[in-house]
Amino acid sequence: MKRVGHLQNIIDTPASRRAMLGTILFGGMTMAAGGIGHAAPLLTPAVLRPEVRARALAAMSRHVGRVAHRDVIGVCDFDDPSAKPRFHLLDVTSGKVDSFLVAHGRGSDPAHTGWLKRFSNEMGSAASSSGAFVTGEEYVGNHGRSRRIDGLDPTNSNARARSVVIHGAWYAEREMVAQHGKLGRSEGCFAFGERDLATIMGRLGPGRLIYADKIDRA
C-alpha cells in the first residue's frame, strides 16, 4: 500500500503498522484530566446528502433480488475528501445515519491529493469502483478480518476478481487526518480504521448493499 508524506517507503507489515500507529499516537499525546492520553482529532461533521441517499435507495430497488437483507445500506459519497467521514451506514427503517472515515484507491488519486479523481473497474488499476455492491463472506487475510464484496453493476463487475474487499488499515485511522490532513490510500478496497471495523463488519453482514458514487464528476 502507498503511504502518505514521508511514510511512503515503509514496508507494510503488521509490525510496521503497529510501530507507525504508535508513532502517530504518541506524537499526538496531550495532557488530559486525571492522566495522559491522546486527543482524538476533530473531524468535519458528515452529512448524507439527499441526492446520494436517493441514488442508494434506487440502487437497492434495482438489485432487490440480489440483496438478501435490506435493513442497512452502506453509502460511500466520494464527492467528499478522505479527511471527512464519507461512508454512511443508513438504517433504512429509521433513517438514522452513522458516518465513518474510509480510504479510496491509489489508482483513483495518483497524486495523493486526498480527493478521489477517477473510478476504474479494470484489473490492476488499484482504483475504487462506483456502483452497487453486495457484501459476501467474512475471512481473515493479509489485512486481518475482512469481508468480500461482489459488484452488481458494469462499473464494478470485477470487484471480486480484483480482491476489492472491506478491511481495516492503519492508514485509515483518524490520526492520519490530524497528522496529514488526509488518509492513506488502498488498492481499491473500502479500508477503515481498526476502531471502526467491528461496527462496519457487524452491521454490514453478508447480503447487504453498499453503494458508492461521485455525483459531481467535474
Describe the protein.
- The chain is of the alpha+beta class.
- The chain has a single domain (43-213), classed as Beta Barrel (L,D-transpeptidase catalytic domain-like).
- The chain is built from four helices and ten strands, in the order αββαββββββαβαβ.
- It has helices at 14-27, 50-62, 174-180, 194-203; strands at residues 29-32, 35-38, 72-77, 87-91, 97-100, 131-141, 144-151, 165-168, 190-192, 209-213.
- It has an eight-stranded mixed sheet with strand order 5-4-3-10-6-7-8-9. A two-stranded antiparallel sheet has the order 1-2.
- A hairpin with a 5-residue loop joins strand 4 (87-91) and strand 5.
- The longest helix has 14 residues, at 14-27.
- The radius of gyration is 17 Å and the shape is globular.
- The relative contact order is 0.21.
